[in-house]
């Protein structure tokens, strides 16, 4: 029941963002057919709480991408930003995707072992390990909550050279950071607050989910 409620909660948060989601999914799917050699970086920006993280995570989990990308990771940029800690988290996510290793040792045991190994690495070793995981693979990476140009510069400089088949999704609160990450205007999305009707619908579903997910609620009765 908890799993069902959690899924419903995530779904209700996507209200009013279908157009942005469809455009982003189409952009990523079409990337491999383009002649450009530029890495695709899609930036989503807007005020806090507007739904940036929910949108990019839903795009990230799209069924079309499951077999399309060999390596995937979705990581929140912690603040204060420490590159070493960021690399550790990213490497752990990418490493535990090794299905053969997970079958041998179990997913939990393998992740624990990987964390212990990564914890002992220095900066250079972490960058080399990241390169070994990403190079030659088609990658989809989400960087949630990039808060400065310097953070982006440190992150992207630690990555190996990624080809045009890869994609990075970035969320940030600042337009200037979004433009710094994505050089092309068509790859930048501003999220505004939801339209009134969508906001009503979202609030009603959250209330339903919190109190009783089996009861239908007419929001007009309480507003």
Topology:
Blueprint: H1 2-12, H2 18-31, E1 40-45, H3 52-60, E2 71-76, H4 83-95, H5 99-105, H6 107-119, H7 123-134, E3 139-144, H8 149-158, E4 167-172, H9 175-181, E5 188-190, H10 196-211
Parallel strand pairs: 1-4, 1-5, 2-3, 3-4
Write up this protein.
The chain is an alpha/beta fold. It is built from ten helices and five strands, in the order H-H-E-H-E-H-H-H-H-E-H-E-H-E-H. The chain has a five-stranded parallel sheet, sandwiched between helices. Helix 4 (83-95) runs parallel beside helix 7 and helix 5 packs across helix 6. The protein is globular, with a radius of gyration of 19 Å. The two termini are 29 Å apart.
Measure the end-to-end span.
Answer: 29 Å
Shape: globular
Describe the strand arrangement of the main beta sheet, using strand numbers.
2-3-4-1-5
Rounded to the nearest angstrom, the radius of gyration is 19 Å
Helix content: 40-55%
**Number of continuous helical runs:** 10
Average pLDDT metric:
80
Strand content: 5-15%
Element-by-element helix/strand order? HHEHEHHHHEHEHEH
Keywords:
223 residues; alpha/beta; 5-stranded parallel sheet; 10 helices; 5 strands; 50% helix; disordered C terminus
Outline:
With 223 residues, this protein is an alpha/beta fold. It contains 10 helices and 5 strands, in the order ααβαβααααβαβαβα.
């Amino acid at each position: 029941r908890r799993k069902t409620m959690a899924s419903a909660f995530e779904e209700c948060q996507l209200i009013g963002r279908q157009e942005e989601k469809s455009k982003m999914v189409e952009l990523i799917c079409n990337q491999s057919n383009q002649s450009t050699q530029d890495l695709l970086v899609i930036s989503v920006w807007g005020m806090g709480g507007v739904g940036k993280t929910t949108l990019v995570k839903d795009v990230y989990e799209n069924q079309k991408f499951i077999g399309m990308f060999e390596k995937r990771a979705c990581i929140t940029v912690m603040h204060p930003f420490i590159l070493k800690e960021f690399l550790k988290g990213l490497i752990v996510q990418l490493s535990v995707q090794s299905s053969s290793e997970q079958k041998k040792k179990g997913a939990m045991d393998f992740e624990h072992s990987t964390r212990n190994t990564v914890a002992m690495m220095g900066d250079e070793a972490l960058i080399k390990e990241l390169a070994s995981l990403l190079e030659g693979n088609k990658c989809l990476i989400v960087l949630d909550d990039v808060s400065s140009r310097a953070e982006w510069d440190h992150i992207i400089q630690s990555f190996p050279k990624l080809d045009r088949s890869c994609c990075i999704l970035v969320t940030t609160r600042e337009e200037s950071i979004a433009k710094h990450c994505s050089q092309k205007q068509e790859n930048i999305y501003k999220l505004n607050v939801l339209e009134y009707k969508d906001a009503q619908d979202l609030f009603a579903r959250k209330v339903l989910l919190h109190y009783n997910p089996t009861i239908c609620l007419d929001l007009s009765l309480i507003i």
